[in-house]
Amino acid sequence: MAAVELVQLTKRYGTQAVVDAVDLTIAHGELVCLLGPSGCGKTTTLRLIAGFIEPSDGEIRVGDRLISSIDRTLPPEARNMSMIFQSYALWPHMTVADNVAYGLKLRKIEREVIATRVTQALRTVRLEALAGRYPGELSGGQQQRVALARALIVEPETLLLDEPLSNLDAHLREEMRFEVRRLHDQYRYTTVYVTHDQSEAMTTADRIVVMNLGRIEQAGTPEDLYDRPNSEFVARFIGGTNVLKGRALDAQHLEAGPLKLRCGDGGALSPGSAAAVSVRHHHIQLSAQPLAEATNVARAKVMRQVFLGASRDYLVTVGDGEPLRVVTPSNVNMPAGADVWLRLPPEHCRALSR
Amino acid sequence: MTSIALPAPAARRRTLDLSRPVLLFFAAFLALLIGLPMGWLVYFSLTDASGAPTIANFYTVVTEPQFLTPFLTTLTLAVSVGFIACAVATPVGWLVARTDMPMRREVRALVMASFVTPPFLGAIAWEILAAPNSGILNHVWRAVTGAETDEHLFNIYSLTGLIFVIACYTFPYVFVLVTNALDRIPAELEDASSILGAKTWYTMRRITVPLVLPAMLAGSLVAFLQAMTLFGSPAILALPAGFHTMTTRIWSLFQFPPKPGLAAAAALPLLIITILLLRAQARILGRRGYAIVGGKYGQPRLVQLGRWKWVALAVCVVVLCLPVFLPYAALIKAAFTRLPSDPLTFDTLTLKHLKFVFFEFSQTRLALQNTVILGIASATIGTVLALVIAYVTARQAIAGHRILGFLATAPVAIPGIVLGVGLFLAYTRPPLVLYGTLWILLLAYLTIELPAAYQQLQSAFRAVHPELEEASRILGATRLRALRDVTAPLLRSGVIAAWCFIFIGVMRELSAAVMLFTANTRVISVVIYDLNESGDLGSISILGLTMLIVTFAVVLLVNRLPGTGGPRPAGS
């Protein structure tokens, strides 16, 4: 069975490397999300896998087959892949059924077989009733599902999705995330999913690959990335966090302005050098009473407080340092301007390696 | 894993390299098409009869009154037309695009109808209407006021008359640009001004007008260029009045004894002015500050005219009388009465012009045949040419696509009469002696019509999202298969439009044809022009109307041609 393997994959436009020596193996049947801000190289990586562009260096293998390298690139039509495009790319001059049947017609499959399988595919995405419609007559969510059916019906070795949900409204987007996951659980295609939306990636992916500036920042399961980010970029991009910067005192302690912190998580610090620590918003505790501990406690002032129903969102400052964001249960209620004490539990202070 | 077998990858990639020869072939063809006539033009302007280099031709052109006077006349004509066209088209365009005036659609369609009218036919129609003695309007005026028979109200054979007639048929250029600009200005931009406290009039002045100003300027420039390079209307109206414009002067240099060197030298300034003005126009339209920026916008909101809307409609109808209603009425009347100025009674009705044109006049059949053959051939070859170039440039399929795009748009800067001179010089000598054949006319039409067809198809290609092709590729279709299954059907209407565009253009072309025709290669426009010299207005009207009917018939036919049950216009 075929895993997709990217080896030192590089794409340069002029001197600028848009994708920079990416190494990644996507196991058979795995759903991997490429996640990152716009311009991070995720879509270029996907288009390299699809064969729409040729690599400047490195190679792509599917199983033991070399499909892209500097010397030769298999055209997209010979890769046995399917793709769902950001614009859906439904052909406006064909009906829903014709759109879905297209890939099978190319494979010269008998007419009756095509008809059954189209019906089946449309049933899977719950669109049997709309087979005769044209794409222009469908809603955004329906168009999205046609695109899904069209991509899945050819039983591709590899399925590629390029920000497939970004054109849907928020409500539908949430629904479709689960739909994508459900279909993946049903068919288990090797899937590469490109998105810039963190929660979309977390809902759908077996494994998330965070990309930044053409390189892989960190790869892992959603839990891995959230609980154990290695870099400031990943910590901020997944879930949002406070990053405190200072100087390491020893392997576990660091001093950031008026704050002295013990880090119970992450790698060891190298004493004397610059260090950074990530503390999630909701891990910081607020107290109206002074706290007695020597480390991981600081006095702060509330700058802003917002009631969000289930929680309250605070912005506080410690001394004249960077403001910190704190999310508390909604019963912790302190007005703006109040003096408070913060507790940053050591087990949630993660030392970042970058 | 599944059904498709994988071909040997190495062989695949090599096939793409066919693109290089293809590019070279098309580039060479286009370069020859344009370069050869223009090269000969420059060569002739700089040599004397024996072939020795000289600047005597240019010296003559800039010193002798026979050139200077027409040059000044042309300048006056072009500037006046530019102003008038802009002054008339802008308010009408605003009424049509931005107000609740009744029958806006009809007005828009009728303005476009005046677009389709060949300018020389319009000029002849106005001859019928406003010639000093025989003009219908002057007859009516004399009948009403009892003026003497040698008095007249209008004299179309004058510079004023010429300006008027040319303005009638160039104001649609400004109209189209202005209405497009107005259509595209989102209501929010005006609303944003109102919400900040601006009154309607202030918003108009500070927001709306500045936003359409570039379109007005660009439109006026096009009108200016048209007026400068037209041959038909000045030849019909200025020559009887005894004055020349640049185009008629150039044409006269080909009357016996021909002076090709002088003609070439006189044509070059027209070419240079055209190029400069087109660059100016591109700059005006392309300025970044005027691009409408931002996200989603709603439909433009219409201004409520209230009681004034009927006044507005009346103004539009009066404006439309001049290029459309009156001329066509005049042509129809002239076609079916003995003399255009006869009163309209049952006694004066006649079919003799019809009989003459179709059964007695020997040139009709040949000219009709030539015109239709040339129209269909130019439209077909031109569309294919434009399609290939547009594909290459829109998809950036091969390196050097920019050169192709440039070559395909370059002819826009060559006035018909200048191209006529160039082609005449280029193809009356070996290696390619095409003068006297239909081929030279075909080359002329292809060159003249290519830019419009190319631009049409390029925007059609842009409207087809590349992902639509890619979706087909990734499902297993080759590049060609994707073109056939996806791109071709989606481009269908654009291709048909481009074809019709070229066909209509060929039917109405006179200025290049008049330089290139011979006894056996007359086309309808040339026959009409010849008949005008003999004053046979009735037959001209019949021929002109026939020409329009043939044009409409072919265009309708082409639009109905294959599988009408086909694609629906649905954008996703």
Walk me through this protein's architecture.
The complex is a heterodimer of chains A (354) and B (572). Chain A is of the alpha+beta class. Chain A folds into two domains: 4-227, P-loop containing nucleotide triphosphate hydrolases (Rossmann fold, 3-Layer(aba) Sandwich), CATH 3.40.50.300; 242-352, Nucleic acid-binding proteins (OB fold (Dihydrolipoamide Acetyltransferase, E2P)). Helix content of chain A is 24%, strand content 34%. Chain A has helices at 42-50, 96-106, 111-124, 140-152, 170-187, 198-204, 222-227, 232-237; strands spanning 4-13, 16-26, 31-35, 57-62, 65-68, 81-84, 158-162, 190-195, 207-212, 215-220, 242-248, 253-256, 259-262, 265-266, 274-279, 285-287, 297-307, 311-317, 324-329, 339-343, 350-352. In chain A, the strands form four sheets. In chain A, strands 6-7-8-3-9-10 form a six-stranded mixed sheet, sandwiched between helices. In chain A, a hairpin with a 2-residue loop joins β1 (4-13) and β2 (16-26). In chain A, α2 crosses α3, α2 runs parallel beside α4 and α3 (111-124) crosses α4 (140-152). The longest helix of chain B is centred in the first third of the chain and has 34 residues, at 65-98. Residues 1-16, 288-296 and 563-572 of chain B have low confidence and may be disordered. Chain B is globular, with a radius of gyration of 26 Å. Chain B has two domains: 18-41 and 351-563, MetI-like fold; 55-339, Orthogonal Bundle (MetI-like fold), CATH 1.10.3720.10. Classes of the chains: A alpha+beta (354), B mainly alpha (572). The A-B interface holds A 2, 50-52, 65, 67, 72-83, 85-93, 102-103, 106-107, 109, 134-138, 143, 150-151, 154-157, 160 and B 1-4, 6-7, 9-10, 12-13, 465, 467-468, 470-479, 481, 485-486, 489-490, 566-572.
